Description:
alpha/beta
Amino acid sequence: MVIRLHNSLTRQLEELRPIVDGKVSMYHCGPTVYSSPHIGNFRSFLFADVLRRFVEDQGYEVTQVMNITDVGHLTLDDVEGGEDKMEAESRRTGRTAWEIAQRYTEEFEECQRALRVRIPHYMPRATDFVPQMGSIIADLLEKGVAYAVNGNVYFEVSKFREYGKLSGKKIDELESGARVAVNAEKKDPRDFALWKVDDQHQMQWDGPFPGGARGFPGWHIECSAMSMHYLGKRIDIHTGGEDNMFPHHDCEIAQSEAHTGERYVSIWMHARHLLVDNTKMSKSLGNFYTVQSILDMGYSGLELRYALTRVQYRQSLSFTIKGLDEARAAIARVNEARKKLVRVRDGLDRPGDEELDGAVAAAHDAFTAAMSEDLNVSEALAAVFEFVAAVNRAAPTVAAVGPALAAFDRFEDVLGVFGDEPQADASSDAPAELLALLEQRAQAKADKDWQTADGLRDQIAAAGWKIVDTPAGARLEPR
Ligand SMILES: [Zn+2]
């Protein structure tokens, strides 16, 4: 099926047509590792994960790169101001920038695992790619689209005619924004730094280009260097949060395309900001949640993943604690239906005489159609729940169970929100004392002591459970 994705560059849905047949390359702007990852960061990372999973589901071989920014990301990056976020955190805590990078990279990876993210094939750290950045900077200097002043190197925006084409920012808009930071070194206030000299900065390298002074790289050049290193001059899909569009991605385009002379990215995709309780998440409003803080409240990674991915990435999504409870209930509903099928398959329940072919085919089709249209997860979930209803209504044959469970496995493979196939041993959810009564009843029946057996059944019923006799023995279900 044709996959259509919304390209932020052209502002329309476009068919995914990979540069190399059957293969899709993806680059995702990753975390800046100076603090604990919050749930807003993960809306964007989970969108990238679902994108990869669905493209793989459709038979493509995906190569995914997500960088770790551990140097050069300024606190006021849109105006090239403030200080490096790593350095600011170092000053605040007394730990070195290197220690901070190590700690929060590890924490980010823990969150990925907790949220069941399929780990990208490459997760390079910017600090490991300074030589590659240097060779791009050297080329830009040689081509005359970058210039050095006092050791700092700037990209000369006026030399790249299409600068700002992604965000669509108008030139005068850009200029008035850039005026905030007065930097007399720049030929044009919009020019952005590729290399910076600052003898206070903890992370420093000898200039990795001819005549380069000791310093550190700008944030934007890092992503160009790492994506080209792993994926080549052109990539199929580049993603990020909507706040990455400008200046970060417009700068990436300018320097990459000026360097290679080719189009850098076929499809740009941006996830919308996550709202919390319908407002912007912020520490001052008291609605700021890290991934860990949600896990500490007793919610699972699956439940948080569900709550952060249940709405299509371009739609506004407001996170609430109630939404986590709804996620819990939704996941349980799906797994109850899966359990019903597993019981028939494992001989715990008597099979019926219904084939589920029509429902299975319809569920696959509706799911694929929804995901193919710009990853419409909410529609895809609607297809899953329609299928759940069909399974709950049916009395399936043993033969019908396999394809139905395979459909659930596929939905799980793409969305990753339901978890592994549930166990369905007899009465697994009933309290232990009731299971003991059930065992006594089995013995009473074997002894043909019907009066005791009935008494035990009534006791179990009074506790809110009913006995279901199956070929594999009796089990308990909530009444
Ligand atoms: Zn980036």
